[in-house]
Design brief:
alpha/beta, two-stranded parallel ribbon, 3-stranded parallel β-sheet, globular, 12 helices, binds nicotinamide-adenine-dinucleotide
């Protein structure tokens, strides 16, 4: 299973790869885009599997694409015959450092992100950063948001690299040795977060930094904001809250904001209004069993969870973020 863009770019090479290994395959192509992370796409995948016919354990489903493809296929694989093996080949930066390596799979439902889903580890994830060579720059920046996130929550040395070499990493689409180190650091840090809490019995997840307000903003943007862009807006807002509460110092807040700006990520958006952000928090609290469990950074690589974010916190931080957007950063 792949999407229309990846199919156009890589169809011939995929056909050749499987043919050289004597594998009989059928390719199901989903239209690209977040709107395709849907129940309908699951049904289309089930139909394609039925037409082709697969054996229970020895014929895996390949998910070849970005997070939309790997999340949707993983969900279909979880449901089909109560579990069919799947192999992920992430082709975006979000896929390489996050969606392609985790255990969470799912689709959106009734304008709620990832509402229907499960935990379904892949048999294998094949990480090949050469795919990034054809990825549009906006999507490279988008993936950078998840790398910045993991650096802020638990890897200050990764943050140092991002701070010193963002332009080079973006220009070279992470194809250099430094790009390899960044992806490697990022995957290692993310896998460690998953290893200690794979089934999310603990709902205080540092890796959820940037994922409190962002799901609502992303869904309400109807595709105009990408996943990582919404996460960046959420991270900036949470930094503002941490700063206001005296949890984060000016220098660290400034470093975080500067890295987000250097990656070309947004800090705010017209959809970030206090009522929408409050609604977003309510949605997320039901997902977190009634708790806020909001991760706020206290330094680069460290943070705490808080449970008492108020409307005032949100409004004041929004003002701070809006001023930054006007001035282009803290400097
Ligand atoms: N399961 C998880 O743990 C997890 C983690 C992070 C994100 N996600 C999900 O991942 C999704 C976002 O993933 P994404 O950013 O990869 O989006 P995406 O799958 O929509 O891919 C982005 C765009 O890039 C195109 N594309 C893919 N590979 C390409 C390539 N090599 N060259 C050129 N174009 C290419 C796609 O067709 C698409 O248009 C969101 O739905 C998000 O919720 C899931």
């Amino acid at each position: 299973v792949t999407d229309g863009n990846v199919n156009l770019l890589y169809r011939q090479r995929l056909n050749r790869y499987f043919a050289e290994r004597g594998a009989e395959i059928a390719i199901h192509v989903m239209p690209p885009g977040e709107s395709q992370k849907s129940m309908e796409s699951l049904v289309n995948i089930f139909d394609a599997i039925e037409r082709f016919g697969i054996r229970r354990y020895s014929d895996p489903i390949f998910a070849i694409g970005g997070g939309v493809v790997t999340d949707t296929v993983g969900c279909a694989a979880h449901l089909y015959r109560r579990g069919t093996p799947h192999i992920r080949i992430p082709t975006t930066l979000v896929g390489l450092v996050d969606a392609g390596i985790g255990v969470k799979v799912g689709v959106n439902f009734r304008n709620h992100k990832n509402l229907i889903g499960s935990y379904q580890p892949p048999m294998i994830s094949v990480m090949d950063r050469k795919f990034l060579a054809t990825l549009p720059l906006r999507h490279v920046r988008n993936g950078m948001a998840e790398i910045i996130k993991i650096a802020i929550v638990c890897d200050s040395s990764l943050f140092d690299i991002l701070e010193s070499a963002m332009d080079e990493l973006l220009d070279e689409r992470l194809q250099t040795d430094l790009g390899f180190r960044v992806i490697d650091h990022s995957i290692t840090a993310m896998l460690e977060q998953i290893r200690i809490n794979p089934w999310e019995h603990e709902l205080r997840r540092p890796a959820d930094f940037g994922h409190t307000f962002s799901p609502r903003i992303e869904m309400d943007s109807n595709g105009s904001l990408l996943h990582g862009e919404s996460v960046a807006i959420d991270m900036a807002l949470c930094c503002g809250i941490a700063l206001r509460r005296g949890l984060l110092d000016d220098v660290s807040a400034s470093r975080i904001v500067d890295v987000l700006i250097s990656a070309g990520l947004p800090l705010c958006h017209k959809l970030s209004t206090p009522p929408r952000l409050c609604r977003a928090l309510e949605d997320t609290m039901s997902h977190r069993d009634g708790w806020q469990h909001i991760f706020l950074p206290t330094a680069i690589g460290r943070g705490v969870f808080v449970e008492d974010i108020s409307v005032d916190d949100i409004e004041e931080s929004l003002r701070w973020v809006c001023e930054l957007c006007d001035t282009g950063g803290l400097k």
